[in-house]
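Practice problem: predict the structure.
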Amino acid sequence: MKIYKLKSNITDFCSFIEDYPDGQESVISRSVRCRWQPFSTGNRPVKLELRRNDLGRKNHQFDISGALSPFFVFSERAVKELGDILTPRGVILPVATESKKKRFFGYYPTNALKSCFNEIDSNYQEYPNGLMIEINILILDNITDDYLFSIEENISDVFVTEKFKKRVEDSGLLGFDFFSEVQTS
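Answer:
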């Protein structure tokens, strides 16, 4: 089974960054602090701004934004196509964008797997909330999810399988980047 980091293609597609006021904790910080446990945005959706792609273009022609990982932004179409995968493995949260034609939703995974991290062969640094891993090597025999997961030790990465990749490709969803295959042992 092949494993990939869940990422978005920022060269060809735009992405979202968060617009939050001074004194408010960013959604990235809240996500990391929650350590894969569900959280709520309360009555205020996460306010997002569109960021240009690497080619300097600015549009909403994408179905994923991973710039706020481990908090992801999916188009309404992506949520419809992948909802049966996403909702049992995480929470869908409200976001606010300036898009008039396309709706987007936040997504935060809550299904952290245990004993999947190869501590000996991986390269990482320890932080108070968990590990920041530069080179992930996962223990393939301990991966029990067929589509999407995080690992308990890692504070920021989300992983998907080749089954997830196939679903995305079969659905024609745009902006996903499956070039970061993760090593397994």
